[in-house]
């Protein structure tokens, strides 16, 4: 009962952000406490990042809401997520794409990938596929994607991700090492359009087109 009360409080905060109603509804359906370590369950609905191991974090609820809102996710979309973490962000996007949509997540750490798989299975999400590898390379075998969600900061937009985004598609990605900015990237017929949406703080993207360890 206490977790339900905290969840409702979190949702009220999300509503005040002014994001699309579909995003609020999706976050209302996802039990965030199933996606955090057991010793952090009491903080699951607080609006701040939480450590999930291997130096990684689960993003603050407001950031998940804002990124999903910027992506303008539609039912049936095929989405690539770079940085799967505990699986929470993927679960919210799975709600937004519906049963006809697909989420492909790439995570650098095997332990976290397995943690996410267990969490998603426990929460009942079957349309999320998790892979382990270099997120900066994307997953070309399933491209093109309607949306790409990058949950770690890159030095610049990785060329493979642009290649794998379909024309008409959207990507959100944090750019910068220490002072980061969240970019909305749109791939249009006339080229790539970028727009800065605010200052953010994310863990670094490590890989060929990311930062070095």
Automatic annotation (TrEMBL):
InterPro entries: PCMT (IPR000682), SAM-dependent_MTases_sf (IPR029063). It is found in: Cytoplasm. It catalyses: [protein]-L-isoaspartate + S-adenosyl-L-methionine = [protein]-L-isoaspartate alpha-methyl ester + S-adenosyl-L-homocysteine. Keywords: Cytoplasm, Methyltransferase, S-adenosyl-L-methionine, Transferase. GO terms for biological process: methylation; protein repair. Belongs to the methyltransferase superfamily. L-isoaspartyl/D-aspartyl protein methyltransferase family. This is Protein-L-isoaspartate O-methyltransferase. The gene is pcm.
């Amino acid at each position: 009962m206490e977790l339900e009360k905290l969840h409702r409080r979190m949702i009220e905060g999300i509503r005040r952000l002014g994001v699309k109603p579909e995003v609020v509804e999706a976050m209302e359906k996802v039990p965030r406490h199933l996606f955090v370590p057991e010793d952090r369950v009491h903080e699951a609905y607080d609006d701040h990042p939480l450590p999930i191991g291997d130096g990684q974090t689960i993003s603050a609820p407001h950031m998940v809401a804002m990124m999903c809102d910027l992506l303008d996710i539609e039912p049936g979309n095929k989405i690539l997520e770079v940085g799967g973490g505990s699986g929470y962000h993927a679960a919210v996007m799975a709600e937004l794409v519906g049963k006809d949509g697909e989420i492909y997540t790439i995570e650098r750490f095997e332990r976290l990938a397995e943690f996410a798989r267990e969490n998603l299975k426990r929460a009942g999400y079957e349309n999320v596929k998790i892979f382990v590898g270099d997120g900066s390379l994307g997953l070309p075998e399933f491209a093109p994607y309607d949306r790409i969600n990058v949950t770690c900061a890159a030095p610049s937009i990785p060329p493979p991700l642009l290649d794998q985004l379909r024309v008409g598609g959207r990507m959100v990605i944090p750019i910068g090492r220490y002072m980061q900015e969240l970019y909305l990237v749109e791939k249009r017929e006339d080229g790539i359009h970028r727009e800065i949406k605010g200052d953010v703080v994310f863990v670094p993207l490590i890989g060929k087109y990311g930062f070095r360890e």
